[in-house]
Predict the structure.
Amino acid sequence: MKLKTVTIPGSKNRLQFGSGEKAICDYRLSFSYVAFSIPEQFITVFPRIGFLTFTMVTGNDIETRFLNYEGSVTRPNHLYISGLFTDSSLKIKQTGTGGGYAMKVHPVVGYHFLKIPMYELLNRQVRICRIIDSNGQLLEKVESDYKITSFDDPYIHQFFEEALPPKTIFLNDPIYHTVNSIIKKRGIISVKKLAKQCFMSRRTLNRQFQLKVGLSPQAYAKIWQVHYAMELIQQNPNASLAEIAFKAGYYDVAHLARDFRNKVALPPSELHQVINPLSQDYLDAPGVS
């Protein structure tokens, strides 16, 4: 894996970024990797995304802690999954030396993989071995008795090989394709149109969405609309907020500013200052779908 080194301006913190892909059965699992050398405390803001996230950290002295969302701690040698976040951006504090792996996963794939309602994962990070069925016993034993150093570890490969569902299961699920429609339309699509596309009543669509995604279709579409607005701001630094709001499907700047305040927890004007190379890598990484 080729690594690119980045030193965070104004600090002694050094990061190295890379990416890779695992071929398991008929899946190609794309993941991001970052190596940390963080003598000082380092805080990163991760805006909400429309994917679940598998994470694993390696190293003896690395500490990774959520500063919101119940203060969850990511411990080395364990495989975690985070559900969708409903409130504001996730804030993480890191220190020490080590590495971290992350893999974004389509929520409906996650539903068929974990076999639990996705609303149970909202705003939470949990160890996968605690929520998955018999395959979790293998993972828990590996995490307890064996040092995992990378996503390429044969035990990690075996776990995914045994636990991943056949692709036909979610490819035949209309909610999978409805989620893809929202992503393709950048969240700018009505629930009425989504229900019509999958031949469901709005009530049935909402119930299925809550089960397999964790949120209502409206709330999930809002994640992608805000994400699109963030992309536009970053790609068009000289554009006015009125232009950004119009392109992102908002009625006016006030509605855009309100969503940034409630869903990103910072004003649009501060986005460039807050998004560092680590959070940008997280936003840009491909998802497993």
